Amino acid sequence: MAAGALRGVLWPRAAAGLRAARAALAAPAGARAASEMSQDMMPGPYPRTPEERAAAAKKYNMRVEDYQPYPDDGLGYGDYPMLPDKSQYERDPWYQWDQPDMRHNWGEPMHWDFDMYIRNRVDTSPTVVPWHTMSKHFLLFLSIMLIMFGLGEIYPSYRPVGPKQYPFNDLYLEKGGDPNKKPPTVIHYEI
Amino acid sequence: MAWAPPPSAAKLYRPNRFVSLPAELDPATFDTSPEKLRAETERLAIRSRLKRQYLLQLNDPSPPAVIENPALIRWVHAKSQNVYPTFRLTPRTSFLGAVYGLGPLLFWIFVLKADRDRKEKRIQEGKLKRSPFSVFF
User: Fold this and answer.
1) Which of A15, A80, B31, B59, CA to CA, is 20 to 30 A from B7?
2) Where are the transmembrane segments (chain B) (predicted)?
3) How high is the ipTM of this complex?
4) Do B37 and B81 share a domain, yes or no?
5) Minimal CA–CA distance to B43: which of A107, A20, A168?
6) Is the CB of A30 inside 8 Å of chain B's CB atoms?
């Protein structure tokens, strides 16, 4: 069924190239119609027997002990290895990677969420301050500020104010009053 | 009076789901057993073999037009073509499918309907004037 769907879909040749590697992360659904990889080199269903596990580990260029597929609960991972959730930030910046911007070597198994863990996006480097401290501080601050602002909206408090007083008999001429008529006297003070 | 010793830095840090443990607090960094050494050697052997294959292709006097990365091809295939064949209906997947598929649809149906009913009620009560129909908002 998969082969029928793959036929006729062209794999863009430049997508897997060295220089276009970053574009390859956004490339459309790949078919193996134009690549030399046989079907047994492609990801497949969840491995059930130890031989299948060994074959899958060899396929993905991993040690058999390192190879750990995602748990088989039908979510569609197949036999893809479950790699540690570490972003590309955490990799050694001084090592000569084959792809320095991705910090990724040719042929090395890519994380399922590789496009999330690139250096422009999610960073899982260890933080200076423990995560629980940071989240506690942030949530405390946010909640206190929101509660205070909310209370300020419900119970506003300000100094006593009266209506604004305008000069010139409440701006009689500016408000369009007749200049020939005597304006009504407005006195704002009491002695 | 003797106080309890202060909690270790690793306990203070508390490993969590979002960031990794610093290397200094991770016990795996200080593990110098021969098993770890053998594992590292095997990984290095695999890495060197792959690097050699790659560099041979890269520095070839008549290089191929495109050096395909099989890991990349497998990754793309796994995320696009291999999901449907390996998908299975389980209670969890059916539940998630219903939540993500029908949830937003039903939510917005009810929210928009309730909002429009409330607006219609206010128009009937006379508090709101029915706005003239316009295709230009």
Assistant:
1) B31
2) 94-112
3) 0.77
4) yes
5) A107
6) yes
